[in-house]
Q: What sequence folds into this?
């Protein structure tokens, strides 16, 4: 597949044009987050020394500066605090308008501003329950020696509990 | 001996959807800056800081400062580097230029900032904006372009403090009226309350006129140590009195409060302390009205009115010409547009003109002016205070 006007791009993957991060262990030290996501688990890292649970997951505790981190499960269901619906300006790759976001209280752990999928316009209201929704995204053609291996990927949004 | 730092020249290109490249816009800004002060010899500029956020993304150009130096005819020898803090890139560069001059590492520094954001297909800038937030965690939720974030801020502020859509609209009407007097602004026409209230929906409750546009443009400012500044201009000197910059979170999950911006309060407190002033001493302000709700919250968190009273404060004309603290007298982001690296410099230019007494819409009796930017997912705040006298 060639890109009009850019003749050298035939068949090439450009990380700078990718919506999503690299999830493989060769490129990401929190790759387990994505592995757990494939099992339907929503996780983060907890510091074994001070007990802090930062999100996003990381390899250094920003509270006590230890690197003694372990993976823990977080709730996969939350409560909607409020909702926005983007009618104009939805970026490429996020479907047709409206793009729905909600401020979600994730079981008291934190408040996330997340994308809501499988949700009709005006459907979601404050107080509604939403749950983790994991979906496949484009794989990455990653060089492995002389071979190119397709690395499957997933990502998450939330969806209404029906 | 104390080294005081003064602004001695400033100018900007025409802002808008521009017919030109990034380097064209920097040259236009430099020309306007040189024309602002014929006593300044650009050969006397010893340092250059360039502010640009999307230079690699939309102009495919890194190592920008030497390129700009070559194009605008300066030969830096004290500093030559680029500064990036997205929407606050320009103000960040001014803070660093101030610090370099104050410390004796530089004497005369040009700060030039700007962006060429429009590419031949407009989807590309929307797509590139996914890099403006934490790309891996918030960008992946489609939160690059900021309207959903500020729509949520507006909804929460309305719920908590009773702020109304009419209050938001008052900000837009004021800033568009101001930009209609500014020939460099993106929008040259005022809008009525009725037009704003019936604007095209973007993310409820925000309509078209609640949102600043995407803009091409550049601006340039020259700062100098006071003893040299006195020989380089015949206009009144404008002093940088104090600065503050703070960040308490980046990703949305770590936002401590959606309606009170903690980092803004910290940055403002720091700037007020260094400038030896209080909110009541500020005669005019250029605040980051990327959205109408932003200016309302900024009036509160900068201390110009009580928390929660920002809506009635703006609707009552308290931050309009003739009010308590005239704000965004050149049109702000809503009227001038917002080429990220250029905005803080554009604000500094307007404050400089107001303090010198040669602004287009001159506010009488101005002696202290403030600029403010927020950047990213409301993740950092930058405040500078300027004055006719040193702190």
A:
């Amino acid at each position: 597949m060639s890109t009009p006007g850019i003749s050298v791009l035939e068949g090439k993957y450009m990380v700078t044009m990718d919506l999503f991060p690299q999830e493989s262990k060769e490129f990401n030290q929190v790759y387990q987050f994505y592995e757990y996501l494939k099992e339907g688990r929503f996780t983060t890292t907890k510091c074994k020394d001070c007990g802090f649970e930062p999100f996003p997951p990381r390899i250094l505790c920003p509270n006590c500066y230890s690197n003694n981190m372990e993976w823990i499960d977080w709730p996969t269901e939350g409560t909607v605090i409020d909702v926005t619906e983007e009618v104009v300006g939805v970026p490429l790759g996020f479907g047709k308008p409206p793009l729905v976001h909600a401020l979600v209280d994730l079981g008291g752990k934190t408040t996330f501003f997340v994308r809501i999928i499988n949700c009709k316009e005006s459907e979601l209201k404050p107080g509604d329950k939403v749950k983790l929704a994991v979906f496949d995204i484009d794989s990455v053609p990653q060089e492995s020696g002389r071979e190119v291996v397709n690395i499957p990927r997933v990502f998450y949004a939330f969806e209404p509990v029906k | 001996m104390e080294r005081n730092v003064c602004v001695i020249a400033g100018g900007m290109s025409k802002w808008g959807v521009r017919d030109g490249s990034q380097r064209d816009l920097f040259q236009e800004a430099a020309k306007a800056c040189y024309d602002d002060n014929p006593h300044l010899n650009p050969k006397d500029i010893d340092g250059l800081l360039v502010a640009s956020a999307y230079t690699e993304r939309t102009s495919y150009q890194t190592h920008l400062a030497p390129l700009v130096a070559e194009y605008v005819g300066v030969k830096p020898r004290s500093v030559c580097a680029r500064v990036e803090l997205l929407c606050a890139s320009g103000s960040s560069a001014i803070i660093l230029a101030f610090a370099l001059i104050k410390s004796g590492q530089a004497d005369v520094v040009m700060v030039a900032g700007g962006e060429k954001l429009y590419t031949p297909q407009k989807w590309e800038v929307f797509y590139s904006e996914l890099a403006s937030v934490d790309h891996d965690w918030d960008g992946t939720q489609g939160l690059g372009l900021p309207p959903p974030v500020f729509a949520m801020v507006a909804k929460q502020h309305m719920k908590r403090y009773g702020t109304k859509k009419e209050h938001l609209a008052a900000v837009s009407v004021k800033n568009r009226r101001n930009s209609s007097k500014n020939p460099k602004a993106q929008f040259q026409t005022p809008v009525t309350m009725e037009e704003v209230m019936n604007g095209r929906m973007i993310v409820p409750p925000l309509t078209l006129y609640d949102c600043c546009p995407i803009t091409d443009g550049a601006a340039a400012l020259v700062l100098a140590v006071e003893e040299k500044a006195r020989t380089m201009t015949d206009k009144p000197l404008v002093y940088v009195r104090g600065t503050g910059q703070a960040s308490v979170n980046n990703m949305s999950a770590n936002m401590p409060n959606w309606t009170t911006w903690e980092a803004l309060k910290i940055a403002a407190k720091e700037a007020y302390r260094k400038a030896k002033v209080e909110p009541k001493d500020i005669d005019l302000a250029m605040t980051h009205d990327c959205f109408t709700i932003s200016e309302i919250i900024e009036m509160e968190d900068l201390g110009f009115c009580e928390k929660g009273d920002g809506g009635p404060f703006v609707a009552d004309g308290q931050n309009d010409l003739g009010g308590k603290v005239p704000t965004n007298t050149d049109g702000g982001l809503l009227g001038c547009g917002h080429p990220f690296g250029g905005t803080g410099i554009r604000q500094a230019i307007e404050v400089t003109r107001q303090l010198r007494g040669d602004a287009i819409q001159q506010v009488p009796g101005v002696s202290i002016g403030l600029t403010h930017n927020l950047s990213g997912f409301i993740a950092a705040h930058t405040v500078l205070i300027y004055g006719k006298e040193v702190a």
